[in-house]
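OmpA family protein
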Amino acid sequence: MTITKSTLLGAAVLASLAFAAGAQQTTLTPQRDRITDEAIHADLSGYEHTQGRIQALNDAGRPVRDYHLSKAQCWLDVSFHEYTRNDRSAFPQEALTESEKLIVGMEQGVSPLPTDTPLVNNAARLREDLWQRLGAIHGTPGFECAQQAVACGEVELVHAGNEFNQQQWRHAKPYIQIAEDWVSDAEALSRQCGGAPGVPALLPVDTVLTANVLFEFDRDGRNDIRAYSLQSLDRELARLREEGLTLTGVELVGHADRLQGRGYDYNQGLSERRARTVRDLLVERGIDAGIIQYAYKGDTVQVQQCEGVKPQAALRECLIPNRRVEVRLKVAR
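Tokens:
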């Protein structure tokens, strides 16, 4: 996302307001000291009070779907989620503080409020492709309808990055799947935005629905596809019917991860076979083979690096987003 002068100004004003309102900020009991009912009750009361401030902003007229109100709520939600899981890191406190910074800004009428998403607790920035898809919605007419999904998708990506730092991909994966759902919903809401009641919104000519079909390590058959990724593809296909869209073309781009035990040429062939497998699955689902094109890029485009991940089994699992076929459904209305 492009950082503008107004964004930096909003961030600076918001930071100063948050500092000035320090008495209103909630400080959680350090994890090591959460050993009494009184300490836990104090923390839960702090969460309840923060939720009440969000509710008061909504009651005063700021809609639930508003980007900043949604972001404050999602920061609060992920903070509370990790607090209840006894997260020993600084994440629950820092996520809660981000929520309260936004709350203070809204209460004080700060404008513009910032749209950046801090990687709290030094969270890893996972899945650059998802960050880019969310960033592309900012500043578009469809953002008006997609604000909540964009805000929560961004927060959930930070949540996943924090989990990745603490316990690697196995713990980050569920939150990445939640983020993927938010991204898909944000794009759908953006597409449907702006039309008069009962009149479908106009679509740009380059509108695309995207899904990633993921494969097991060094595999390319239909039985080697992760089930949840196939469900993601079927969800996007279902949107065609739900939104009254016409499928005008399909582009499949096969990929492999960066593990080159058998070399560059092998990974090129592996990515091609994966693309062909997905092509056959789409034809079985009623897609005209004549509108399907495919390409393959081997291991040249990695969306997740997994630097420092060990042992080998954990690294293979972490790299699964790279073992994908990008399915790009070109649509019109």
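The CA atoms of residues 142 and 190 lie 4 Å apart.
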